[in-house]
């Protein structure tokens, strides 16, 4: 293989005696099932069915059956000896990717595997310490001892708040359990944030407050619905097989609310099954209210469902409204702004100016006819009086533009249409990454210094803490941090100042000398940084970190996690991790040992299965509960991982239950048919299995007053300023890239497709700026707002944008990035879209870092900027890389 | 003009002696035409060696005349086997591996590299693209060596290498692995 993509005309076929492993995709939330065939280098299977492990004659012309594309093959090391592997979608799969469907991301998993003859040679192989500015290989012992020396000093002198973790929340239960055990239980710090948020807070918060679990639905529900309302998402782009396997077949209708006409949208329109609502950025709430008004005015609501499943006044008050409690949830639900019952919600919708069709059309930029049509599709009873089976999906276009109100208003709309707890009638997130968080608990979130008005505790904003210079030690696990968070330029500049901008830098590999240097660093206001990753991560690993630790990843260790329908599978180890790379749980245990946390017998894991079994009891209260599987394994005298291995690519959906001694998965949450009465074995009868996640088990309707100051002031402040020539500069994903592209740019086939970041620009906006497809464009926002200081909410208005500005808690910074233009009318005029989280082209640099005061989560999608042509890219003439064609060609 | 579309069949392919394409035996015995790197539009010497090693020397086959090709009106042909169905098209814009005075004549296999879906009849003249595949909507850029524009194919669309002799267009090779094949030049069941 080469750095450049060169099509091969041959792929080795696995011989009959190749070993077979099951796994699931490492990437998106859908998690297709894969099989890995491994055999020693030196032989190959033959083309006849009896000569190969695929039991298939080659060549063949049978669509959708066994084929190994060259990108699915690699040569890896197994027990030190070279082996062929092919990683192919499981054609025997009966769930998720039935029959072997797959995306381009998972379909090229084979190229992910470490092979020094490919660009994967860039993998981190040894622990390293930055000495005189240069990363130098050291032993695991020295790295972890030096980390422990300075950590002990910081904890003693500066306190646990100064010791921080920025971590992936999805990279397998075994790792996330170990990392949270270290951070929350042993160190006891509140300074922990996941990869996708500045605080350890909710995602689709309005759903949570309504009592709806974000991952309540199964993929079958998306197949079974008659209408899919897709808010802020085209699943084709980001959840490929959910779209191609579960949504495309049949004749269901799809409503897409997004400013970008992507392939799924264009295809559905062509088929006469689609409705495209190109919403103005941030205004989904108004659309939802207008739809609710049409439903109510026409009496199309599902009254029977409402009577049975919507909380009445007394049930709304049950569990809260009885004095101060110490959570954000309490704050959101006790002030009367939001929670409602059916008569009150109805009154609210009918009284709002913004819910009027003409007004809503003006605010959202969607034609009144299309809004009316959408309302008819989702709720208008059919001629026979039956109701359309409508499911509601939301993703980041929804909750990453107006975090609280978009989710709250969508939940209410879905509920009055009768969705939430029945086959084909669900309200759920589509999902981004897989569900791999198994928190060890013992959380120390209550140590957060932040407060909502009314003095209720607020989750900890780690970015703000860093900007304030309060972090003395930060351990980053597998995330870019800088590119992934908002105001990336300001965040990166501050990080640099605190690390390699500090005069105290390590100059020699001597444990005592390192300690003395780092002590001076932190006492002079600086910060020590550790980066655990599989590749050099730009810039935290490449520029800032004092310690860089090599991680072992997918295929290099036995791991487990769930997908977005809570399906638990074993991700099998099938080859050697490169160099001295170790799974993050191992590095954590090593560090914990140096810290003295192992004295009570903790962290004594021999393998990842030990953690899987230990972690099981910490998940018992949640929807990822797999404890019954571990109990069953113990009963059988087997390891938990090995019992799960027997479930192959099918796995089992959590929460796992027990009936007649057998393990039973849970297809759908909140479904009353899950109420089986008595519990059996190790199962936990969670209320969310058969009712909504509220005190009463009934869902709560939430109001969403458009002019709510916590939202509206910010929205006004970050809108494009016409006098400056700004347009919205939003961000999102494309089908061919996973996350930051850490693997994609080392897969020659995918690297040729997207060698650089793009910005999709409407022809009219492009014309005004003199931009053509293939031009380099610089995007600048000279007013990127960053929340600073330590705002404590006391009075209601304290965390609103205008008050923060007045109180000096908003700093104005400049953000810019560069990308290659693709001029196409697939995007709404006045909006440009770039890839989210590309480390060398950070689209989030033009987005403000002022979180939603309701949730402490950012409004990621609301960037703005002036577009300026800065030259022509090589892709204008180089025909070997980066297609500049529009995405939706139908 | 060769304009034969081989119908899609399930399972193994049959030998078709005497047909316009060669049988396996004929193919393996044939010397084939020399595929020049210029046909690929690759000039770098550094890249020449591995590329050359990957290419088989296929027998050349006349598939059409340049003067008869109309821009945006594709023709189909089979090469190098009867079951490998391809499109020959003049794009009207410079393309990777394109021949003719405007380097705009290209040929590609018509089986989607995702799961073998048929791309026949999906040519989009406006975008110089093939697709979307009727199965899962993958599209391919014919100006950039069959690169995926959007979708799931895990390889670029195999490109049929062309050579021009006077007015005659010859297929002279295949770059890539056609869906359903384990190898293009050996290993047949």
Task: Characterize the structure shown.
The complex is a heterodimer of chains A (890) and B (189). With 890 residues, chain A is of the alpha/beta class. In chain A, helix 8 runs parallel beside helix 16. The relative contact order of chain A is 0.15. The model of chain A has no long low-confidence stretch (mean pLDDT 95). With 189 residues, chain B is mainly beta. Chain B has one domain (24-175): Rieske Iron-sulfur Protein, CATH 2.102.10. Helices cover 8% and strands 23% of the residues of chain B. Chain B contains 2 helices and 9 strands; from the N terminus they run ααβββββββββ. Chain B is globular. Chain B starts with 23 loop residues before the first helix and ends in a 14-residue tail after the last strand. The interface between A and B is large, with 61 and 67 residues.
What's the arrangement of secondary structure elements?
The complex is a heterodimer of chains A (890) and B (189).
Chain A: E1 19-24, E2 33-40, E3 73-78, E4 81-89, E5 128-131, E6 134-137, H1 140-157, E7 163-167, H2 173-187, E8 192-194, H3 205-210, H4 219-224, E9 227-231, H5 235-238, H6 240-247, E10 253-257, H7 263-270, E11 274-277, H8 284-297, H9 303-309, H10 313-317, H11 328-334, E12 339-340, H12 342-351, H13 357-364, H14 368-379, E13 390-394, H15 396-399, H16 403-416, E14 427-429, H17 462-467, E15 473-477, H18 488-498, H19 511-523, E16 528-533, H20 540-544, E17 547-550, E18 559-562, E19 567-571, H21 584-595, H22 608-616, H23 627-636, H24 640-645, E20 652-653, E21 657-659, E22 662-664, E23 701-702, H25 709-718, E24 727-732, H26 748-753, E25 758-761, H27 763-769, E26 775-787, H28 801-806, E27 810-823, E28 831-835, E29 864-872
Parallel strand pairs in A: 7-8, 7-15, 9-10, 9-13, 10-11, 13-14, 15-16, 16-17, 24-28, 25-27
Antiparallel strand pairs in A: 1-2, 2-4, 3-4, 5-6, 5-17, 12-23, 18-19, 19-20, 21-22, 24-29, 25-28, 26-27, 26-29
Helix pairs in contact in A: 1-19, 1-21, 2-21, 2-22, 8-13, 8-14, 8-16
Chain B: H1 24-29, H2 45-54, E1 61-65, E2 75-78, E3 85-90, E4 105-109, E5 129-130, E6 139-141, E7 147-150, E8 159-165, E9 168-175
Antiparallel strand pairs in B: 1-9, 2-3, 3-4, 4-8, 5-6, 6-7, 8-9
């Amino acid at each position: 293989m080469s750095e450049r993509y060169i099509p091969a005309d041959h792929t080795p076929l696995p011989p009959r005696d190749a070993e077979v492993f099951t796994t699931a995709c490492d990437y998106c939330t859908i998690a297709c099932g894969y099989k890995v065939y491994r055999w020693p280098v030196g032989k190959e299977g033959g083309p006849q069915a009896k000569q190969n492990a695929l039991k298939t004659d080659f060549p063949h012309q049978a669509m959708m059956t066994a084929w190994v594309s060259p990108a699915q093959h690699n040569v890896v090391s197994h027990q030190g000896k070279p082996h062929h592997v092919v990683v192919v979608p499981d054609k025997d799969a009966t769930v998720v990717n039935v029959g072997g469907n797959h995306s381009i991301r998972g379909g090229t998993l084979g190229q992910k595997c470490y092979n020094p003859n490919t660009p994967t040679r860039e993998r981190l192989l040894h622990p390293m310490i930055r000495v005189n500015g240069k990363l130098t290989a050291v032993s695991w012992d020295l790295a972890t001892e030096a980390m422990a020396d300075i950590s002990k000093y910081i904890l003693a002198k500066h306190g646990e708040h100064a010791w921080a973790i920025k971590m992936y929340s999805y990279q397998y239960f075994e790792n996330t359990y170990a990392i949270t055990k270290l951070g929350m239980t042993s160190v006891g710090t509140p300074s922990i944030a996941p990869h996708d948020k500045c605080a350890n807070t909710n995602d689709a918060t309005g759903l949570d407050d309504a009592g709806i679990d974000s991952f309540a639905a199964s993929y079958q529900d998306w197949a079974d619905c008659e209408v899919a309302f897709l808010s802020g998402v085209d699943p084709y782009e980001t959840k490929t097989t959910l779209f191609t396997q579960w949504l495309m077949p049949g004749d269901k209708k799809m409503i897409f609310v997004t400013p970008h006409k992507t392939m799924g949208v264009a295809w559905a329109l062509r088929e006469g099954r689609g409705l495209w609502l190109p919403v103005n950025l941030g205004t989904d709430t108004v659309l939802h209210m207008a739809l609710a008004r049409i439903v109510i005015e026409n009496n199309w609501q599902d009254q029977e469902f409402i009577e049975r499943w919507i909380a009445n006044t007394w049930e709304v008050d049950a569990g809260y409204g009885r004095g101060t409690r110490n959570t954000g949830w309490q704050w959101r639900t006790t002030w009367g702004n939001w929670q409602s019952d059916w008569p009150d919600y109805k009154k609210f919708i009918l009284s709002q100016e913004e819910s009027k069709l003409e007004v809503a059309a003006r605010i959202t930029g969607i034609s009144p006819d299309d809004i009316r049509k959408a309302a008819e599709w989702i709720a208008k009873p059919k001629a026979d009086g039956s109701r359309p089976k409508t499911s509601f999906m939301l993703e980041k276009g929804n909750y990453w533009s107006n975090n609280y109100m978009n989710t709250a208003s969508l939940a209410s709309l879905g509920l009055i249409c009768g969705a939430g707890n029945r086959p084909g009638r669900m309200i759920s997130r589509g999902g981004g990454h897989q569900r791999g968080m198994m928190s060890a608990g013992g959380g120390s979130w209550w140590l957060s210094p932040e407060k909502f008005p009314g003095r209720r505790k607020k989750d900890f904003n780690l970015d703000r803490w860093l900007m304030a210079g309060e972090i003395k030690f930060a351990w980053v696990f597998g995330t870019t941090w800088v590119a992934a968070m908002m105001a990336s330029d300001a965040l990166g500049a501050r990080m640099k100042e605190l690390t390699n901008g500090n005069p105290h830098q390590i100059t020699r590999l001597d444990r005592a000398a390192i300690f003395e240097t780092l002590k001076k660093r932190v006492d002079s206001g600086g910060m020590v940084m550790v980066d655990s990753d599989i590749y050099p991560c730009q810039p935290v690993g490449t520029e800032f970190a004092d310690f860089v630790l090599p991680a072992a990843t997918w295929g290099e260790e036995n791991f487990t996690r769930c997908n977005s329908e809570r399906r638990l599978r074993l991700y099998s180890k099938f080859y050697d991790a490169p160099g001295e790379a170790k799974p993050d749980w191992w590095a954590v245990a090593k560090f914990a040992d140096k810290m003295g946390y192992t004295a009570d017998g903790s962290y004594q894991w021999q393998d990842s299965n030990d953690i899987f079994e230990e972690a099981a009891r910490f998940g018992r209260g949640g929807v990822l509960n797999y404890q019954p599987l571990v109990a069953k394994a113990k009963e059988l005298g087997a390891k938990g991982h090995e019992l799960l291995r027997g479930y192959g690519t099918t796995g089992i959906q959590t929460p796992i239950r027990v009936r007649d001694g057998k393990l039973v998965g849970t297809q759908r949450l909140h479904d009353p048919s899950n109420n089986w009465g008595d519990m059996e074995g190790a199962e936990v009868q969670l209320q969310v299995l058969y009712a909504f996640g509220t005190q009463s088990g009934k869902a709560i309707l939430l109001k969403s007053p458009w002019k709510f100051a916590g939202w509206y002031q910010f929205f006004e402040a970050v809108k494009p300023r016409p006098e400056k020539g700004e347009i919205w500069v939003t961000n999102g994903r494309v089908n061919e890239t996973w996350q930051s592209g850490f693997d994609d740019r080392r897969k020659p086939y995918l690297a040729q497709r997207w060698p650089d970041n793009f910005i999709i620009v409407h022809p009219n906006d492009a014309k005004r700026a003199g931009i053509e497809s293939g031009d380099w464009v610089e995007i600048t926002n000279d007013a990127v707002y960053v929340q600073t200081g330590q705002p404590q909410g006391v009075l209601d208005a304290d965390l609103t944008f205008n008050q923060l500005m007045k109180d000096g808690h908003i700093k104005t910074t400049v953000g810019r990035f560069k990308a290659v233009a693709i001029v196409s009318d697939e995007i709404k005029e006045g909006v440009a879209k770039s890839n989210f989280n590309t480390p060398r082209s950070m689209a989030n640099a033009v987005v403000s870092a002022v979180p939603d005061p309701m949730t402490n989560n950012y409004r990621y999608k609301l960037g703005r900027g002036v577009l300026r042509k800065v030259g022509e890219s090589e892709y204008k003439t180089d025909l070997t890389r980066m297609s500049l064609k529009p995405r939706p060609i139908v | 003009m060769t304009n034969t579309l081989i119908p899609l069949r399930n399972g193994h392919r049959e030998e078709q002696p005497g047909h316009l394409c060669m049988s396996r035996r004929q193919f393996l015995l044939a010397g084939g035409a020399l595929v020049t790197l210029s046909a690929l539009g690759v000039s770098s010497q550094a890249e020449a060696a591995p590329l050359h090693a990957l290419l088989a020397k296929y027998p050349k086959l006349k598939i059409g005349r340049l003067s008869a090709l109309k821009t945006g009106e594709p023709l189909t042909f089979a090469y190098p086997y009867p079951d490998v169905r391809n499109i020959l098209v003049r794009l009207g814009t410079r393309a990777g591996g394109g021949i003719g005075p405007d380097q705009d004549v290209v040929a590609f296999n018509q089986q989607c590299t995702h799961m073998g879906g048929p791309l026949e009849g999906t040519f989009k003249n406006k975008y110089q693209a093939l697709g979307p595949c009727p199965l899962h909507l993958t599209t391919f850029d014919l100006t950039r060596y069959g690169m995926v524009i959007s979708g799931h194919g895990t390889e670029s669309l195999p490109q049929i290498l062309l050579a021009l002799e006077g007015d005659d267009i010859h297929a002279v090779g295949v770059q890539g692995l056609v869906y359903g094949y384990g190898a293009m030049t050996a290993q047949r069941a």
